[in-house]
Amino acid sequence: MTKILIVDDDREIVDLLSIYCKNEGYEPIKAYNGMEALQMLQQHLDIHLLILDLMMPKKDGITVLKEMRDKENHLPVLILSAKSTDMDKIKGLTSGADDYVSKPFNPLEVMARIKSLLRRSGISQQEAEPNVIEVGPLIITKESHEVKTLTGKEIQLTALEFGILYLLASNLNRVFSADEIFERVWLQESIVSAKTVMVHVSHLRDKIEKATGGDKVIQTVWGVGYKISE
């Protein structure tokens, strides 16, 4: 799982970003000052990205950044700071940060920046996604886009139907809204996605139920979205 170290002396910000990271399938690690940040980096060598505040007690963000880079640590770093002048941004970026977001911030923008940094650094959630998933009566193979029942019966799905099924099956118990499904499967920004997703989910359900004799693999959480439970 992709691990993200979130460092800020404002605990509410750390908790908020942790929730958003978990919703994206990332594992958040928390620190509340510069000293803790450096300790976490030593303890967790498999951290994939750092979200870093600048104004913190004990050691500020710029100091943390410089000490990291001096040790040849090339971890992607996203600065999140109330310092928002052009000079502050330039200082942060020239000190070794990869991106800079000013406070107050939109958590969705922060998540988009994180995904972009992970892609640029060659790290993505897809690398950790399993090739074969067995859930309920289904065996789903990502590489070949095949879905079979446990009895070996193949279910013919369109690319979009397979994308929806794989997304839900690889994130068991997590509820995805229609907008989230549209953005992840269609790889476009959501515009009028709810009805489009609903139609594809309906077709997907019909095919699964027909092949399995009525198993209801995909659940609707009314007013929220769709999920597959363990």
How would you describe the overall organization of this protein?
- Helix 2 (34-43) runs parallel beside helix 3.
- This protein has a five-stranded parallel β-sheet with strand order 2-1-3-4-5, with helices on both faces.
- Strand 4, helix 4 and strand 5 form a beta-alpha-beta unit.
- The mean pLDDT is 87.
- The protein has helices at residues 11-23, 34-43, 61-70, 86-94, 107-120, 125-128, 159-169, 178-186, 193-212; strands at 3-7, 27-31, 47-52, 77-81, 99-102, 132-135, 138-141, 146-149, 219-221, 225-227.
- With 230 residues, it is of the alpha/beta class.
- It folds into two domains: 3-126, 3-Layer(aba) Sandwich (Rossmann fold), CATH 3.40.50.2300; 129-227, Winged helix-like DNA-binding domain superfamily/Winged helix DNA-binding domain (Arc Repressor Mutant, subunit A).
The CATH homologous superfamily of the largest domain is termed Response regulator
The largest pleated sheet is described as:
5 strands, parallel
- In the predicted model, the low-confidence regions spanning at least 5 consecutive residues are none
Structural class of the secondary structure composition?
alpha/beta
Keywords:
3-stranded antiparallel sheet; 230 residues; Arc Repressor Mutant, subunit A; 2 domains; Rossmann fold; alpha/beta; 9 helices; single chain; 10 strands
